[in-house]
Write a structure and sequence with these properties.
It is built from 9 helices and 2 strands. It has 184 residues and is mostly helical. The protein has 2 domains: 85 residues, Rna Polymerase Sigma Factor, Chain: A (Orthogonal Bundle), CATH 1.10.1740; 63 residues, Winged helix-like DNA-binding domain superfamily/Winged helix DNA-binding domain (Arc Repressor Mutant, subunit A). The protein has a two-stranded antiparallel sheet with strand order 1-2. Helix 2 packs across helix 3 and helix 7 crosses helix 9.
Length: 184
């Protein structure tokens, strides 16, 4: 494979590992994931000269990986439903994500929110207080509380995405992340 510039954040081995995790979350076995990861890397190597901006390598590579997985299932349509069921039931699948790690970042990121947003998210997301109860307690309309909670969630998401590029699977599990800043 062509070498990346020395100042590049993404190295080939890290890219391969990220692609493998991404593909593994979508196929029924490690062997298939290995094969599809290899196919993806071959396609990347063949087309690397068409990539104009090295900063776009990772999103471009994941786009190729998605297409490789889609092609795999098109070739194996009869296996699709059975594979999805096995992936959902697989203990390895449930543990092959970074949900807990990303969740551990949230308390620090919550501190970056304005006080009102932090309080609303703590009540609804951590303490489990319903938005209707908050509206009643604060003498506000339910729709106003819903809007405020939604805005607070958006702000928290922006803080997270400013810090890291987060890749999720179809079920919302975090399957990979790449820090954007050193101080996150």
């Amino acid at each position: 494979m062509p070498e990346l510039k020395s100042n590049s954040i993404v190295h080939w081995q890290e890219l391969r590992t990220s692609l493998f995790r991404f593909i593994r979350s979508r196929v029924p076995s490690r062997e298939i994931a290995d094969d599809l990861t290899q196919d993806t890397l071959v396609k990347i190597a063949k087309r690397i000269n068409s990539l104009k901006d090295e900063e776009r390598l990772q999103p471009w590579a994941f786009s190729i990986a998605r297409n490789v997985v889609t092609d795999y299932y098109r070739r194996n349509r009869s296996d699709l439903e059975e594979s999805e069921d096995r992936a959902i039931d697989s203990e390895e699948y449930r543990n092959d994500n970074y949900n807990n790690e990303v969740a551990s970042w949230l308390p620090g990121m919550l501190q970056e929110l304005p006080e009102e947003d932090r309080r609303l998210l703590t009540l609804t997301e951590i303490e489990g207080v319903s938005q209707k109860e908050i509206a009643e307690q604060q003498g506000l309309g339910y729709s106003a509380v819903k809007s405020r909670v939604q805005r607070a969630r958006s702000k928290l998401k922006k803080i997270m995405l400013d810090c890291c590029l987060v890749e999720t699977d179809g079920r919302g599990n975090v399957i990979d992340f790449t820090p954007r800043k050193c101080d996150c």
